[in-house]
């Protein structure tokens, strides 16, 4: 009998929580098949998820239209095993005992779909690596 506390939890943080972190959360949710608890947040959340990020994810069969940018809270960081930052630098609170990774990714904000696709694909590759490190077998998407 497993409870949600048995699941590894990952928090993705970028400044606006509108592009990179939303795509990463979408991939991790889909590829983990529910085996990982997924959160995303921003240090200065935008009003909406980047429509081009939504379009890029839809191309690979992942729907993130319903997502909303969320403000980064100390509680979200404390509740997560792995914290992945994407260009928010010092805005992310640090807690001992957490695993932190900083993924240097181009910001898709203001870019067209042609520029966002390679960012999306790089995020997918990193998510697949992260799943392996967490001991979770990716599901087919």
TrEMBL record:
<dbReference type="Pfam" id="PF01451">
    <property type="entry name" value="LMWPc"/>
</dbReference>
<keyword id="KW-0059">Arsenical resistance</keyword>
<feature type="domain" description="Phosphotyrosine protein phosphatase I">
    <location>
        <begin position="8"/>
        <end position="133"/>
    </location>
</feature>
<dbReference type="InterPro" id="IPR023485">
    <property type="entry name" value="Ptyr_pPase"/>
</dbReference>
<dbReference type="InterPro" id="IPR036196">
    <property type="entry name" value="Ptyr_pPase_sf"/>
</dbReference>
<dbReference type="GO" id="GO:0046685">
    <property type="term" value="P:response to arsenic-containing substance"/>
</dbReference>
<protein>
    <submittedName>
        <fullName>Arsenate reductase</fullName>
    </submittedName>
</protein>
